[in-house]
Each structure stands twice: as structure tokens, then as C-alpha cells.
Amino acid sequence: MRYGYFDDQRREYVITRPNTPLPWINYLGSEAYFGLISNTAGGYSFYRDARLRRLTRYRYNNVPLDCGGHYIYLRDGDTGEFWSPSWQPTRHELEGYICRHGLGYTIIGSTYKGIEAQTRYFVPLGDSLEIWQLTLTNRREEPANLSVFSSVEFCLWDAQGDATNFQRNLSTGEVEIEDGVIYHKTEYRERRNHFAFFACSEELAGFDTQRSAFLGPYRGWDNPAAVERGRSFNSEAHGWAPMGSHHVRVALEPGETRQVIFLLGYHENPRDQKFDPPGSQRINKRTVKPVIARYLARDNVDAAFEALRAYWDGLLSIFQVRTLDIHTNRMVNIWNLYQCMVNFNLSRSASYFESGIGRGMGFRDSNQDLLGFVHMVPERARERILDLAATQLETGGAYHQYQPLTKWGNDEVGSNFNDDPLWLILSVAAYLKETGDGSILNEPVVYENRPGTEKPLYEHLQRSLRYTLDRLGAHGLPLIGRADWNDCLNLNTFSDTPGESFQTTTNKEGKVAESVFIAGMFVLAAKELAAIAQERGLADEAQRYHDEAAEMEAAVLEHGWDGEWFLRAYDDFGRKVGSHECDEGQIFIEPQGFCILAGIGLEDGRAEQALAAVKEQLATPHGIILQQPAYSRYYLHLGEISSYPPGYKENAGIFCHTNPWIMIAEARVGHGDQAHNYYTCINPSAREEISEVHRCEPYVYAQMIAGRDAPTHGEAKNSWLTGTAAWNYVAITQWILGIRPTYAGLQIAPVIPSDWPGFKATRVFRGVTYHITAERAGPGNTVSLTVDGKPVEGDVVPLPPAGQREVTVQVILT
Ligand code: BGC
Ligand code: NOJ
Asked: Burial of 379 by CB count in 10 Å (0-12 exposed, 13-18 middle, 19+ buried)?
């Protein structure tokens, strides 16, 4: 069953009923100001950091679901009836409800008793504000006297304090109202130099800034007193709950259309110019007024929207593909890339499943997100790499996450996730191959955000690799630390205290438990660093990394192979995890994926064997399960993984993030059909027709789909913020379509399904546009290249001479 459809032409997902199984959301903003917006206009906004600079409130866990947002109410002055054109929060039955989620914007429209209302929400490029552009049309035969009410509830900036410290918060709220603009300025009197503004293009009939006045006592957003009576209270918030609402009267003749624009924005003043007049407590509005004036003009708003569309045209045109599979095309050409941008911007901070408070920018997460983003805006990828590296410790270890606003490593979450440092090597390698910009390696970067500790980025990478080698266990495999990629495989935690964090509690010294996953990852990272050293002309060093990789590979083959698949780990007692010898958790997906990605077992048949085991034991029609058999009870020595009921999350859920590793592995052994089949199983577009089962948005990946052991097998959860986005993008574009940046040029080595006649693609790489046509002339994956009409040896298209902007590539597969 579907709840909407893809409009590929307009690059939108169109939702045709408001009551989707879960709120289906979108993101506004791509630089500094961000908003989450659901298909019924729920959600909230923040500046840079969802925890520290939250503009508006949102209550998770609320009922009715998803209440609180970017809301507009309409009221018919003749009948007194009022409704929400976005359905929530009044939930009147609407005619012709439609929500179009596009790239960086959302349009929600409906008709109610002949009044058509459409609101376009977006954040213009280059400014920190969101625009709500409301178009009203009277489709009745007689004139309509309407009232429009806007509404937002302000958050007192720090979302954590806002949700907990009421004894203070209920007394600190402050606003100003000037020229019809509502300014939220809580704590501006003291240490903050920023405020929010909420403006309207029309003359106001009234306003409200105190929630209790607007709603009325004991009433909710579905029935505000001001809207019901058709008149604002002109309330001024002193403490309690500051909010913003404008009241505008609009009289429409039959057929007449009017626009009303609302702006919600964030603004900072220089610290020494906060007040006007100086010495007063009034906000200095001189710098914000021009911004407000600019976007209250309709032409400027339309132009800003066109600029946003053009921005996305540009980003999407970097890689476009035409295959015979519509789901592949749609995800590669539009939605997967878009999700990669959102993940790059927000890491795991703010979604409808991440509160924006707990998890900032993950070190591991952000490095992986970069893999799917680096070709889009390489300058931002560069900056991100340097920010991440600056949170690295001198040991080579890393803070597990940092706050986007301060860019400081977050102490509360700590470090010692022993895979973390290696991800930096993978992201830097991806950046270098994409851009050829070796200068980044010489950039001085601090350790632990401490000035004076600067060392070239290259040294950070050396220390990353060293970090693993300094921490090997009895089998010569890397010690796991708090956890590796699988945050829930906590082999040193041994927690028996309810509520204790599995990730930050350590009751064991951590000198025994080893990870085969990190071993595979080390081999991959060491090979990448060897290639980087080689590029820098450091042949001896490169050789050393190759030797270290080979040594680790030998350890994996000797102690990390279970007979038919790769072992997962050794626990704190030195016993196997992920072995046929175990009662539960006999086979895990992660080491199969990562060892093969690293090239282990490709020559001796073990890769094929491990993949056969994955197919037999882990594959389902809804995707590949993380491990089997699921843990049926809590195991003290395994930690959080066994805390989940069977079939969910890391305990035998289909943890989508890991699936593309298997797709890549299948491609590496030449199985195009199997690789693409796995790709399709979790492709959200391909799952659209079972939306009643999948339940999450059909246009973006979710972190997890419930596994076979779960009563709700096939149900997705935790959509949007997940490494699934970047890795699927890498799997399909670089390994199945086979178009991979390398130091020497663009490699084209497709491993596509046997029934594909070929495909066409364009890829912009280092400023050159490659027009690629691949044709199947035989059943295999052997590539013959013709570049600008001339045959070329191998599968790498050499970099063209300077000045050449277009290259035509023909690939024949036999
Ligand atoms: C989740 C993991 C997540 C971790 C972050 C756990 O509860 O299951 O997926 O990475 O929390 O701290
Ligand atoms: C989600 C986290 O964001 C990611 O870092 C981790 O690897 C996976 N969960 C698996 O636990």
C-alpha cells in the first residue's frame, strides 16, 4: 500500500494523505540554519546545533503524535470555523491534501470548504531563516473573510535545559514586539548575543507571545483560544512559555489569490553592539532589519526559491545515471544523494528518532557520511575532515563525538571506541581520490582541540593506524575497547546496573577482547594509507603499511576464520563470538563485509564461502540480518546487543548500514545479480509499495528494518540519520555501477546484473564531465574501455590533459 508517489520530474515525493503510518519528514536548510518538517508541518528548527541553539520546541513521545511545529491556522470570519491547512494540529478533514517534500523545501496544501491554502517552507541559501510562503485562494462563489494565525513555540535555546530546568525557565522568557516583528530574546540580557525573530509580510490585526494566552488555560494546539475567538490577545511574554503568533485578516473575492509570508530566523549581534540605544535592554535591530525586509518581499522570496532549486540542480548533475531500474535511478539521481547531504550536515543529531540532545557529530559517523558526500561539495568535506581530526587525541584515539557549535570533543561520551581512528584514514583517502588535493595532508591540525599541539594531518593518519597496532590482543587481532562499529557489542562493559550507559561503562581492563571487524578495517585502512604514502613519494613507508596489512591479514586468516565465515570477536574470557561453536550469535554480518572489502579471502575462496553463508543464514527479502541466531536473553559479557528483544536493532535486526558492505563484497567477487538484489531489498523506493509494512518514509533509508525474529519483520525504524545513506551510495555508484575515483583517474568497473543491457551515466570528476555508456556484450564483468574513440588498456580512464572539460567513455562488458 502507498501513501503517495514519486514525482521524479520535480524531484519530489508527494504524500496524498496526512495520516501516514509515521510522520514522514523532510529537512529544511543545508548550511547553518536547519528545520525538520513533517508532512503535517510538525517539527522544529535550530541554528547549527540542535542541542545548544534550538529555536523552537518539539515534544517527542507526544500524543497525538507529532504535535508542535510550523503551524498556520485559518479561520472563517463568517462562520467562526477554523482549521489547519496542514491538517495538524486541528485535524479537520481536508479536501485535496497534498504534501510535496522536495530537496530543501516542503510544500503543504489543501482545500477546506472552498478555501485553498498552500504553504511553501524553505530556508534560502546564505541566510539563517525559514520562509513560510502561504498562498490563499478563494474557490467559493462568494467573498471570504479569513483570519490567518501563525504559531511557533520558542525553545529557550539549550534544548536540554529547556526540557528539564523549569524552576528557572519559567521566569526567564523575554520577547520584544516591534513593527509587527516578534523577537524572542530569552537570556539576551546576559551572555547570549543571539535572538530569534518571527516576522510577517502583512499588517497585523494582533499578535501573541505568551503561550497560555494564545492557547487559553488547559487547551492544546488543536484548539487555541485566540483562533477560536478570532482575535489575538496581544500578549507579551514575561517568563512562562514565550511563543510567536501573528494574526492577519484577509478578505478574498471569489477567485482571488493572496500571499502571506512569514519568516522565522536566527540572528547574532556583535557582543559590544547588542543593545540599541546602548545602555538600554532593547535589542539592536539595525543589522537584522535589512534581512527581514529582504525576505518579506515576494519577488525576493521567489528568487531565493529558484536559487535553491538551481543549487540542487548543480549538485545532482555531478552524478546521474540511467539504468533500466527506476528504483536505482531515483535513489542515485535524487534521494540517496539528498540523504547524504542531510547526514553530512546533521550526523546523528536531530531527526524524529534522535532528540538533538544526545548525539552530536559522531567521529565514526561523520567520517563515513563523508564517503557519500565528498564529490558534492569537496570544500565542506575538507573542512569537516579538519574538524574531526582536531578532536583526535595524541594517542591517535578520538572523542567519539563533538558538538557542532563548539566543535569540541564531547567528554560525556568519551573515547576508546577502537575503530574510530581508522575511519579518518578512509575518509581522507576518499577525499584525496575525489579531489587530488594532497595539500590537505600538510594542514596543521591540533590534537584534542588544544592550541599548540598542531601536527600535519598526515601525522594524524599515521597515529590512527598506530593506535590499532599499539592495542593488539593475544591473537594479534585489535583490542575492541568500548566497542567497534557495533556500538552494542560491549565486551568490556559487564554492566548489571539498570540504566547504566553501555557505551561509557567499562568494568574490565580491555586487554583481552579482540575484534575481527577492526582487523578487517585495519587491513583496508593500512592499504589506503600505503597508497597515500606512495602518492607522497614515501615508498618505504608505503611498504611498511603493506607489510602491516599483510601481517594483520595473516592473523585474520589464522584466528579470525571460523571455517565457513569470518569470526566476529573474542570476548573478555578469550572465547569466540560469532562462531558455529556459540549457542547464539553464530554468524555476524560485519566481519564478512569488512574483511572482504579489505580484500581478505578474495584469492583463496574464503570470500565466496563467507558470502554463501551470509546468503544462507542472514539474507531475508527485507534485507540482510546483522547476526543469527538472535540473542534470546541478556548476556553480561556481550552487553547492549543482547539487551534488545530478538530481531531489533543490533540484536538480529536488519541493520541497513551493514548491507552495502555485503553488496560491495558481492561485487568484488563478481556477483552482479546478488549485489543488486541486496541493493533492491532495502531500497526505500522499491519498498514503497509495502509502505504499510515498512512504515517509514519511502524516499530515504532507515537505520533498521526489523529482522526475521521480530514480530514486526519488515518494519523500518530510525529513518534519515544513518550511515546507510553514504554506504549505499558508495555501493551502487562505485561498486555495482563501478564508477570509482582513484588517484590515477576515474575507474569504471561495473558489476551489474546479468539482465541489464548496460547503462548510461554522467560523472563530474575533478572538473571534467565524463559521459559514460556501458554495454553488455557478454555475461561477465570484463571491461574494455574506449575513451574519446580510442581504446585504453585496463579500466581506469586516465586524467585528460588540462583544459579538456568533457570525456566520452564507452565500456563494453564481456
Ligand atoms: C544503539 C546504537 C547506537 C548507540 C549510540 C545504541 O543504543 O543501539 O545503534 O549507535 O546507542 O550510543
Ligand atoms: C548507530 C551509530 O550511529 C553508529 O556509529 C554505529 O556504528 C551503529 N549504530 C551500530 O551500532
From this structure: exposed
Tell me how far apart the alpha carbons of residues 332 and 729 are, in angstroms, rounded to a whole number: 7
Residue 537 phi/psi, 5-degree rounding, is 80, 20
Catalytic residue among 208, 325, 484, 487: 487
Expressed in angstroms and rounded, the spacing between residue 488 Cα and the centre of ligand 1 is 6
Which residues does ligand 2 sit against, CB inside 6 Å?
A: 348, 362, 364-365, 485-488, 650
Check the CA dihedral 611-617-623-624 and report its sign.
Answer: negative
* Residue 364 pLDDT greater than 90, yes or no: yes
pLDDT bucket at 490, cuts 50 / 70 / 90:
very high
Q: Which of 485, 464, 469, 462 is nearest to 551 (CA)?
A: 469
Of all protein residues, the one whose alpha carbon is nearest to atom 2 of ligand 1 is: 487
Q: How far apart are the first and last CA of the chain?
A: 40
User: Which residue puts its alpha carbon closest to atom 4 of ligand 1?
Assistant: 487
Q: Which tens digits make up the pLDDT trace of 568-606?
A: 999 999 999 999 999 999 999 999 999 999 999 999 999
**This prediction's pTM:** 0.98
Phi/psi for 607 (5° steps) reads -60, -50
Q: 354 CB less than 6 Å from ligand 1?
A: no
pLDDT in tens, 724-756: 999 999 999 999 999 999 999 999 999 999 999
Residue 406: band (very low, low, confident or very high) from pLDDT cuts 50, 70, 90: confident
- For residue 645 the three cell numbers come to 528483544
Q: How far apart are CA 518 and CA 595, in angstroms?
A: 9
Looking at residue 656, the DSSP 8-state letter turns out to be G
Question: For residue 763, which amino acid is it?
Answer: R
Give CA–CA dist 586/571, Å, rounded.
13
Q: What atom in ligand 2 is closest to the CA of residue 485?
A: 7
For residue 649, the ligand 1 atom closest to its alpha carbon is 8
Query: What mean pLDDT do residues 494-505 have?
Result: 92
- Write the CA distances from 745 to 434, 436, 519, 533, 800, integer angstroms: 9, 10, 29, 18, 9
Q: Tell me the pLDDT tens digit for each residue of 638-664.
A: 999 999 999 999 999 999 999 999 999
Indicate which atom in ligand 2 lies nearest the CA of residue 348.
Answer: 3
Which one-letter amino acid corresponds to residue 349?
A: S
Strands 105-112, 115-122: pairing kind: antiparallel
- The answer, yes or no, to whether any atom of ligand 1 lies below 6 A from the CB of 488, is yes
Residue 562 among the catalytic residues:
no
Tell me the pLDDT tens digit for each residue of 688-722. 999 999 999 999 999 999 999 999 999 999 999 99
User: Dihedral of the CA atoms 400, 405, 407, 412 (nearest 10)?
Assistant: -40
- Of 411, 401, 421, the C-alpha closest to 484 is 421
